[in-house]
Amino acid sequence: MAITNQAHSICLDCSENSFTITGTYTGTAGGDITSTLYVTDPDGNVSEYNADTLYNSGTSGGTQTITAGTTSISTSNALTSVTLDWGTVANNTTYSFTFRTMVNGYVQDYVISYTSDSSATDGEVGSALDSLLTAIAVIVNIEPPAYVGGTSLTITANAGASFGIGSLNNLSSTATTPNTTTTTASFADGVWLVKWVMLDDAATDPSPSITNSIFLCNVEKCVREKASKVDVGCGCCGSRESDEAMDAIMYLEGIKSALSCGKVEKAKTILSGLQDICNNDCKNC
Q1: Could you tell me the CATH number of the domain that includes residue 92?
Q2: Residue 285 counted as domain residue
Q3: 160 backbone φψ class: left, alpha, beta (φ>0; ψ -120 to 50)
Q4: Which residues, 6 or more positions from 260, have their beta carbon under 8 angstroms from its beta carbon?
Q5: Both 94 and 152 in a single domain?
Q6: What is the mean pLDDT of the chain?
């Protein structure tokens, strides 16, 4: 059986500067599954996220939260299996590398390091690295390495997981640390495109789930600030502050009305006008 349908929704929390994606799907994965999020900001920049938390085997889906200013692994360059080799061991020598993976939506680096004693053997190094990796296996979603001898050790991710390695010290491997992407310190106002892709071993994979959501955190804050400057006790009308506040409120409501009718491009045009009011403080009004 295969996954036959998938969908997701977006919930933006301006106070926390984060947004939560809730995913659902029907059917059952045919073998290993890859679950990836592609997030495109209003300027066209794309960030890629390992979306393991959106795919939960045996359930209808899950959630994933993306916070501004965090870093994520680009899964297109991540690994599902890699073999490390230490060749001829040496006494009193440090064997180390950095293991990079996603934990609860954030990139985590684990430094795996072992220093051999004065009578080093292949088994000493292999068993030590095996033990260090086994200690974090559940956290980073990999299979226990199970070193059995020789001068190499293979690390394998569990289904749906991926990782990277780097900073190799007295170890060799063809693997490299995967690319990472960093979101902006705050989410820019405008249309954000989120595409959720699920792939399994079935002959036909479901169509990706794609949403367009408009973020208005910054202009909404601007409108509140302008409204707070209006002196409601003043008997006069037509003050600069009240005019700016009314203009800003009308623009904001215009954006929301356009979106409710599905007129995304019109909403973007009105947003541009409101940003001019906020950025220029309506000096030319």
Answers
A1: 3.30.70
A2: no
A3: left
A4: none
A5: yes
A6: 85
Six-digit token string for 156: 């394998």
CB neighbours of residue 46 within 10 Å = 12
Does this model's pTM top 0.70? My answer is no
Helical residues (DSSP H) of the chain, grouped into ranges: 122-140, 217-228, 240-260, 264-280
Q: Say how far residue 235 (Cα) sits from the centre of its chain.
A: 52
At 285, the pLDDT band (50, 70, 90 cuts) reads: very low
The sign of the dihedral angle between the CA atoms of 222, 228, 229, 230 is positive
- What backbone phi and psi angles, to 5 degrees, belong to 270? -65, -40
Are 89 and 169 within one domain? yes
Token pair in block for residue 219:
């202009």
Residues 101 and 146 in one domain: yes
Same domain (yes/no): 167, 83: yes
Angstrom distances, CA of residue 104 to CA of 62, 71, 171: 12, 12, 29
Indicate the number of domains in the chain: 3
Same domain, 104 and 164: yes
222-244 pLDDT, tens digit each: 999 888 877 666 655 556 777 88
Q: Average pLDDT for residues 116-142, to the nearest whole number? A: 93
Which residues lie across from 199 on neighbouring strands?
34
Per the model's pLDDT, the better-predicted residue between 183 and 208 turns out to be: 208
168: domain range?
A: 77-181
Given a contact cutoff of 8 angstroms between Cβ atoms, the answer to whether 206 and 4 are in contact is: yes
- How much of the chain exceeds pLDDT 70, in percent? 89
